[in-house]
Specification:
The chain is α/β, with parallel strands linked by helices. It folds into two domains: about 30-120, 3-Layer(aba) Sandwich (Rossmann fold); about 140-275, Rossmann fold (3-Layer(aba) Sandwich). The protein contains ten helices and eleven strands. Strand 5 (about 160-165), helix 7 and strand 6 (about 185-190) form a beta-alpha-beta unit. Helix 2 (about 45-60) crosses helix 10 (about 275-295). The longest helix has 23 residues, at about 10-30. It is globular and about 50 Å long. The two termini are about 30 Å apart. The mean pLDDT is about 95. Bound molecules: the ligand Nc1nc2c(c(=O)[nH]1)N[C@@H](CN(C=O)c1ccc(C(=O)N[C@@H](CCC(=O)O)C(=O)O)cc1)CN2.
Length: about 300
Amino acid sequence: MAANIIDGKAFAATVREKVAGHVSRLKEEHGITPGLAVVLVGEDPASQVYVRSKGKMTVEVGMNSIEHKLDADTSEADLLALVDQLNNDPAIHGILVQLPLPKHLNEDLVINSISPAKDVDGFHISNVGLLGTGQKSMVPCTPLGSLMMLRDYHGSLSGMNAVVIGRSNIVGKPMAQLLLGDSCTVTIAHSRTKDLPDVVRGADIVVAAVGRPEMVQGDWIKEGATVIDVGINRIPAPEKGANEDGSPKMKLVGDVDYASAAQRAGAITPVPGGVGPMTIACLLANTVTAACRANNLPEPEGLTA
Ligand SMILES: Nc1nc2c(c(=O)[nH]1)N[C@@H](CN(C=O)c1ccc(C(=O)N[C@@H](CCC(=O)O)C(=O)O)cc1)CN2
């Protein structure tokens, strides 16, 4: 039987609507307009698209958007000075440094220079520790969006077997913590896991975040399992024809072979239109949460983990 498609684009629109509602209450009742600062270093084309999209959606939900675009050869000292300035600006509730950074910049150092309360990416070591110990934290956007979709589809996740493929700090590890927090039995698998297909066959929930195009095959998926595909890979698509310079056109695929997995899964997220749009929606959600916390107001309902 064909799987149900979990429509991340539609779900993200509902999250943004909720965010807009909270923003308008914050403005009307407390005179607070949440502000999000996004820092982009360099000219990575994909990062430029994501940053533009973040700015546009921030404004659409009624928040202030501040963009800092720095040259690719910006020094670490200059970047740290900018972060320090944003940390001390009371009109800024959320700070995000777009990743990846150019090679000469130390990503860990930069991320850990962001005030944890304004770290709307949830990558700061303090937020990582808080999440790992089940305390209130800023939760990384992609795992938060994936969890929201899983909860919406299943209701309770308690007792389900979840396999997270990928052990990155940005997705795999926080995703595993969130699933554990919802009482799943969690396995973190990765490219060196022995008998990976067999490990995945035991899962009621599969989260693929390994960064390898279409690696997870349909016959790895247990009948009826829910598949969350976090991968965003651009691969050549000769079937779409060629560009003017003769190079093949490209297409976007996930870490899951969608066609075969959809034959066995009970539900699956597509790429594009699955987890990706939820990443930006959850960034906006985290910014509202940060603004509420900064002003000792109750947590916005339905937007946190
Ligand atoms: N500081 C951060 N850097 C990066 C993050 C992050 O969460 N924080 N995540 C990714 C990039 N990213 C947001 O920054 C992001 C990736 C993908 C999408 C998205 O909507 N994808 C669409 C397809 C878009 C396309 O055509 O390329 C989809 O999947 O439907 C949004 C945000 C790395 N860096």
